[in-house]
Amino acid sequence: MARLKHIIMMTLVGLISLAGVVLAVIFAGILAALAAIGVGLMALTALFTRKPIRVTVNRAKPKREDGVLEARKNGSTWEVY
After folding, report:
1. Three-state secondary structure string covering 19-34
2. Considering the entire predicted model, what is its pTM?
């Protein structure tokens, strides 16, 4: 009788652990699906909200009448070149 009881208990322990593994696999699958949906939504958002690249071309600047070619702010003062 003790042998039969031990077989039943071990079978139940095995089935419970197998159910836990099945639940973990299902949970991981749900998380993977949600992650794929999130990445897809981020890619779609990035596609529609992107801004064009700003390209600057170095070209000859026309000379100003006051002789100033460039002005840069250095702290609270302006440096004129």
Report:
1. HHHHHHHHHHHHHHHH
2. 0.51
* Encoded tokens for 5: 């009881």
The continuous run of DSSP H or E covering 72 comes out as strand 71-74
Do the Cβ atoms of 80 and 73 come closer than 8 Å?
no
Going from the first residue of the chain to its last (81 residues), give the mean pLDDT of each consecutive group of 10, the final group possibly shorter.
Answer: 94 97 98 97 89 70 70 80 66
CA distance 1 to 9: 12
Q: Which long-range contacts (CB under 8 A, 24 or more apart) does 77-81 make?
A: none
User: Please, what's the b/e burial string for 15-36 (b: 16 or more CB within 10 A of its CB; e: otherwise)?
Assistant: eeeeeeeeeeeeeeeeeeeeee
Residue bearing tokens 């009881």? 5
CA distance 4 to 37: 50
